[in-house]
Every structure is written in C-alpha cells, then in structure tokens.
Amino acid sequence: MYKKVICPIYKHFIPITSQRSKSVHTDCKYLLNLEGAVASQFASILQACSDHSLIQQGRQVHAHAICSGLVKNSLVGTKILGMYFLCGRIVDAKNIFYQLDLQYTLPWNWMIRGFTMMGYFEFALLFYFKMLGSGISPDKYTFPSVIKACGGVNNVKLGKAIYDTIQFMGFGVDIFVGSSLIQLYVDNGCIHDAWCLFVEMPHKDCVLWNVMLHGYVKNGKSKNAVGMFLEMRNSEIKPNAVTFACILSVCASEAMIGFGTQLHGLIVACGLELDSPVANTLLAMYSKCQCLSEARKLFDMMPRTDLVTWNGMISGYIQNGFMVEASRLFQAMISSSVKPDSITFASFLPSVAELASLKQGMWIWHAKFSTKAPELMLSCALL
Questions:
Q1: Where are the PPR repeats (predicted)?
Q2: DSSP 335-381
C-alpha cells in the first residue's frame, strides 16, 4: 500500500478547469500522493503536462521528483527539461539542463531542439558546438534541429558542412535529416541542391515530397511543381491535404483552370474537399480563374468558414468586379460574428469607392473599431 509523501516544496495541488486536462489533473494528483513512484510514472505525467501546456502542474511534479530523488534520473530529468521548453520556460529549462548527467545525448538534443523550436537559432547552434566540444556524439535526432537552426540564420554553407558530418556518421539517408536539409535549401533558393538531395534519398514519404513540391512553388518554378506532383501521383505515395493546397496555389497563380478542375475531382475522391486549407485554396483558384459561381458554390458548401474563407470570397468578388456581391457578403460576415481584419478591409474598401456609398463607408468606419485593423491603412483606404 502506497503512503502519502510529505514534500515541503509544495502544499497545494493546483486544480484544472479545462475538460480536456481533467485526466492529467487526476494522474498528477495521484502521483503526488504516492511514495515510491517510479521514473516511468513521472515521465508519463510530465509528458502529459507538456502536451497540455500545464506549467504549474509540471512544476509540482518537478518538485515531487526532487523530493523523491529522481530529478537526476536521465528519463525524468529530460522530461522535465522538455516540459519547460514546450511550455516556453527557457530559463527553467536551462537550469535543469545543468543538473543532468551531460554524458548522454538526450539532454543536449533537447536544448538544441528547444532553442530551435522557440526561434533562438544562434543558441541552438551554440549548444550543438558545445556538445561536440564536450566529446558527446550527436545522433540522428540531433541533426534535424541543427539543420533547421542553420536555416534560421540563413547559413547554407554551415548546413552543407554539417551534412558532410551527417553522411560520415551514416545518417545521410535518414528521412527526417534529409527533409530538414531539403527545407534549408529551398528556403534559401538552392533549388537544384534540394532536387539532387531528394533524388539521392532512398526512401521518400509524403512529407519529403511536400517539402520538395513547396520548394518549387516558393521559388516560382510552377512547371517543375506540376511535374513533381504528376511524378508523385505515379509513385506509391498518396498526396494529402498539404500536397493539394500546395499544387492548387500553382493553379491559382497560373490560372490553370483545366488542371485545377481535374485536381478538384481528385480531391473529392480523396474526401478532402471540405478540409479548410484545401477548400480555401480551391476557392482562391476559382476566383482567380473568374469562376465565381464555382467559388461561391464551394463557399456555401463549407460546414465551417473561417476568416481566410470569408476574405477569399470577398476578394474574389472584388477582383472580378462584383462589388455589390462583395458588399453583401461583407455584411453577412459581420452578421455571422466573424471579425474582419486589415486584409478584409483593404480588399473590401475599394468596392465602397466604386459604389460611391458614403453611408456604407461610414458604417465600415464604425465596424472597424471592433477589430485590430491598422488605423493608417483604413484611413487611407476610406479617403
């Protein structure tokens, strides 16, 4: 029979009101009242605290780990470290890092991953080189974050040098490492290097295809993007929502209504027509190809319309000269309790000028006070 532990570091367990976190609350409370809890129990609860961003409960589990003498356990310690990073507490993460046994790779990986995840790319690279200087060998889980950090500081040369190390260590064929390096290349315009690496990868999943496809789109290589998509269709990899949203953006920018319509049929067959990113990109494609009836049909079919959807439909009407329809849709948007943003106003206000409606302009001026739209943009547009 377990006995209650008397831990002077905490006195009260903080209750959780969120329905989705009640099970975590119960598990945490159970753990804090156990004597002899094992490392795996701590690790499981700490992971749950990380997943739900429960920093206060995580701190209490950390305190209990100190009282139980498990804080320096490699499994528990790294889970605490990860919990602080995932909850955005960098200082706490750094403090716990120096309390751990740094002869293992995992704490170093978490520091590199955590700093990269939060956008502190220079610190991520600093800890990578500290890791090497401490004689700790990186593993395949180290390099995706390191490569991403290289991209964050726009240092392709460093990324290539690190990739030489990756190949020397035998991790060059790892799909996560490969996709990270391809992302680095495409983000910095090295599309040929990205393609060469993509071809070299022995195993390609949907994520890897999507990274390469997005690279072509981002770098204005529309024909290559279409060719890439067709090649993917001939492979054993099935496109997902990200794939379709990406290739549809090409159809929109290049006004490829024929190919876009074929894609729409394929999307319906895959059951992705009402996926928000896919539907929004489809709507944009039809609008830019002057197929407003198809765009509106899709808009009316969507079970959930977000701000991007409303903006896309309003913008489509305006771009094609349907000012009255744009005005009606804007009013319907307000009536649906969807708050317009600066993009909404910037695209819609020209229709007010076109209609020469002072009354409507004044109504919009009052409507903007319930939003965070930039004052200067709205004032200039209204003038």
A1: 104-138, 205-239, 306-340
A2: HTTPPP-HHHHHHHHHHHHHHT-HHHHHHHHHHGGGS---HHHHHHH
